[in-house]
Write a structure and sequence with these properties.
Helix content: 25-40%
Number of helices: 21
Number of strands: 18
Radius of gyration: 28 Å
């Protein structure tokens, strides 16, 4: 009898920490003690591990087994520690060998089958960064783990098969498991199922189409106010199609978030297309921002990282939910504090808000058909706080589509055509801002815009006057400048001129019926 060791990974947010699993077999009465701040689901692993080992033909020692998860001060949660714990206990009993340098990530079934766990991709990424190369996972997690460069991954169906590869005596091992049935193939989450929404489907709405193109090119936040049926949702659904594919580092980051979240299909390849999240207006702050008991989980804002977060009927959301988005809109990151620990998730998304002009939706034009009182209208938009709207670059009013526009025979630009201009504009931004470590205009700081890229006073006169008269805040001033640079990039100009600045200012002030 001696000591056994194996490695696992504890996830805190999107950050993984290597956990050394130590097992010791004492000379006292049978017992199984698990130390190192395990949560309730991890404590339940004791009975799963015993049954899995017994049914695999390698029962655990009948003496006292003490398992310690190091570092002991780090909270651990989830079932991904099952395999590491049983391998350490088996090594302590002399049943297997050579486990100390391998990272084990799998849940155990009572019959000894290895079951997949969520968060394998970020866990393997963290372990590789820490200098580890050998990984053992469930067969269904192999494709996901192999996405990480530098990882040597082995996948198994059962605990008995793992034990064989780690020098166990095969005499009593149960290598044949019951057939689990035919599983559906892993979803290719990087691909779009069915035809993608096309800009050619949008009738009329010339100003809104231009605003969508500018938002896509510069990574700007957008708000659309208009009557029901004007096409706000249709426009928002087409924004992801205008965005280029994610680069390798971005795709790895986005895929890691979706792997950790575990609410979607199994991750089989890198997610290359920008994600699109459209939560219902009844969603809670935890659902949008993230949180929950124990270590906080990612919410819709993090799942929309490098993509689009669309909040339809925005005034119907709880105001506290909307205001919780103010911090990630500025920093591109969500830091969630809970009693069990602090977790940080990236959340650099494009926010798209859509709203009716009033609760009944008929306060357009002269508003003769509107039945809402002035107090009802005010209360409706009061949920959209000034500080939140100040962070939204483009605010415009979307009008109803006329019959002539709806039945017009003139060809409309497709998503492919608009996306080509967006890509060219983004390339211009990378060339200009790359030396500052920035990828787009939306990330440019005010100091940079008013310093290295300062525009002549004659071109910013209208903008300067809006700031002096209180129509714009200092934050709004910088955001208009960012918009102007994006408009210039789409037009192929070296810098914005007076017309570009004027159009940017107009697009910021056309929402809420103004």
């Amino acid at each position: 009898m001696g000591m056994g060791r194996a490695l696992a990974v504890a996830m805190v947010g999107l950050n993984g920490h290597i956990v050394e699993v130590e097992a010791d077999i004492g000379q006292t009465l049978p017992n199984f003690i698990l130390l190192g701040l395990p949560d309730a689901s991890l404590k339940e692993s004791i009975d799963r591990i015993k049954a899995a080992a017994q049914n695999s033909g390698i029962p655990l020692s009948r003496r006292k087994i003490t398992v310690n998860l190091v570092p002991a001060s780090l909270p651990k949660r989830g079932s991904a520690f099952d395999l590491a714990i049983v391998m350490a206990a088996l090594e302590a009993a002399g049943d297997v060998r050579r486990t100390g340098r391998t990272v084990f990530l799998a849940e155990l079934g009572l019959d000894g089958r290895l079951r997949p766990v969520r968060g394998v991709l970020p866990a393997v990424m963290a372990a590789v960064r820490a200098g580890h190369e050998e990984f053992v996972v469930a067969e269904d997690n192999v494709r996901e783990a192999e996405l990480v460069p530098g990882a040597r991954v082995r996948g198994y169906l059962s605990l008995a098969q793992v034990a064989v590869d780690f020098d166990a005596d095969t005499q009593d091992l149960v290598l044949d498991l019951p057939e689990p049935g035919v599983a559906a193939p892993a979803a290719e989450t990087g691909e779009v199922r069915g035809p993608a929404p096309d800009m050619a489907d949008v009738a009329g709405q010339g100003e809104a189409r231009l605003a969508l193109e500018i938002a896509a090119a510069g990574g700007h936040h957008l708000m659309m106010v208009g009557p029901p049926g004007a096409g706000k949702t249709m426009l928002a659904e087409r924004l992801p199609g205008l965005l280029p594919d994610l680069q390798d580092a971005e795709a790895m980051e986005v895929t890691a978030i979706h792997s950790l979240d575990g609410s979607g299909p199994a991750v089989g390849q890198l997610i290359r297309r920008p994600p699109y999240e459209h939560p219902h207006h009844s969603a809670s702050a935890v659902a949008i921002v993230g949180g929950g008991t124990g270590i906080p989980r990612p919410g819709a804002a993090s799942r929309a990282h490098r993509g689009v977060l669309f909040l339809d009927e925005a005034p119907e959301y709880d105001r506290r939910v909307l205001d919780a988005l103010r911090q990630p809109l500025e920093s591109g990151e969500l830091v969630l504090h809970r009693s069990a620990g602090t977790a940080s998730y990236p959340a650099r998304f494009q926010l798209v808000l859509a709203a009716n002009p009033c609760p009944c939706g008929k306060a357009t034009g002269k508003g003769a058909e509107c039945t809402c009182t002035a107090m009802a209208r005010r209360r409706y938009f009061d949920r959209l706080s000034g500080p939140l709207l100040d962070r939204v670059d483009i605010q415009l009013h979307v009008n109803r589509v006329s019959l002539a526009e709806l039945s017009g025979a003139e060809p409309r630009e497709s998503t492919h055509q608009v996306a080509a201009r967006v890509l060219a504009a983004k390339e211009r931004q990378r060339e200009r801002l790359g030396r500052f470590g920035l990828a787009g205009n939306a990330e440019a700081s005010g100091r940079l815009l008013r310093g290295v890229f300062r525009l002549p006073g004659a071109d910013t006169a209208l903008l300067d006057r809006a700031l002096d008269t209180g129509q714009l805040t200092a934050r709004g001033y910088d955001r208009v400048l960012r918009l102007a640079w994006t408009i210039a990039d789409l037009g192929g100009h070296d810098r914005p001129d007076r017309d570009d600045v004027g159009l940017a200012l107009t697009m910021r002030q056309r929402g809420m019926g103004t």
